Amino acid sequence: MRLVSIKQAKPSMKLGRTIFTDDGKVLLGAGVLLTDRLILGLIRSGIDSIYIDDPRTNDIIVPDMITPETRNKAVDTIQRTVRQITNSNKVARRVSVKDMGMHFQQVFHSILSDLMANEQMLLHLTNLCSQPGVIYHHSVNVAVMATAVGMSLGYNSKQLKELGIGAMLHDIGKIDLPEEMTTKKTRWSDEEMEYAKQHAMMGFNILRKQHDISLLSAHVALQHHERLDGSGYPQGLKGSQIHEYAQIVGICDVYDNLTTPRPWRKRFLPQDALEYLMGSGGHMFELKLIKAFREHIAVFPLGTSVVLNTGEAGVICKVDPLYSHRPTVRVMRDGRGNELRMPYELDLREELKLFVIGFDDEELFSLPNASNK
């Protein structure tokens, strides 16, 4: 399969990977033949990209870091929790939500089991969900990435659970933001941004009242926007005042936000998002944590179309976790732009004079500009 912009989708193409709704249900299943009506429906749902089956790339399988069942269960748990808290009155919010911690512990156990079963631990993340559901899938993505980082740092089961549950609930405070802000299709104004910063404290105040949620998990919600140099919020903490869990979740939060499309901008290239994070090492986040994060992210995810410095274009078909910046490319178009009847593969670990200069599908990606986050 290969990833293409929704603008490149054509009738009779076969969908290569399932697309989900905001509540984790199937919007369109893998194997469905696209029609003009289905393509228009995907566009209206805010889908910017799809995986398609292609005879030349049908052997390229993009792995799920967690199973669809685990993802759906996680999204459903987050959504039910949001609904339960939202529907409660202000008095009820002062007490613990029944069995909240138990439900999230069950979900986290599934996420951890899926990650432990994945030998490579290399994340090929591309959001394929409708725009209204981005917040729920974002929370799951952040939890998956943060847990992978925690595992690489040697965290024990208790630490992983605190980190993972905190990651799943890091944005829970956004339920107290006005609906006109959370559904807005344009960037927030400066005034709205200042108000939105309150979501960190709002989330902490919700979670610290839950008797079966660790206070350290609650501090993830409070501190995930804090930065080492004191430039973060809501308390302007510095250095060791920021818990390591919150730093890890902050890194994962920034990466997933940058690589997720917004109504006002395209998604960032994975390597540009990673470059931004590496540049922030030492003053926004601990460099060792960014390096631990980088070890688990595919710079060039499987199935994406790239261009080499020779002008040849193809699809990423293999990635060695130890050399994720030097993938194997299945060349499908020569340097003159001619489609090849017989594609061939180039292993960039061996072809040292070759390198990727960009992604072939310009409809998907924007130039790096962190202010657009």
TrEMBL record:
<dbReference type="InterPro" id="IPR003607">
    <property type="entry name" value="HD/PDEase_dom"/>
</dbReference>
<dbReference type="InterPro" id="IPR037522">
    <property type="entry name" value="HD_GYP_dom"/>
</dbReference>
<feature type="domain" description="HD-GYP">
    <location>
        <begin position="113"/>
        <end position="309"/>
    </location>
</feature>
<dbReference type="InterPro" id="IPR006675">
    <property type="entry name" value="HDIG_dom"/>
</dbReference>
<dbReference type="InterPro" id="IPR006674">
    <property type="entry name" value="HD_domain"/>
</dbReference>
<feature type="domain" description="HD">
    <location>
        <begin position="135"/>
        <end position="258"/>
    </location>
</feature>
<protein>
    <submittedName>
        <fullName>HD-GYP domain-containing protein</fullName>
    </submittedName>
</protein>
<dbReference type="Pfam" id="PF13487">
    <property type="entry name" value="HD_5"/>
</dbReference>
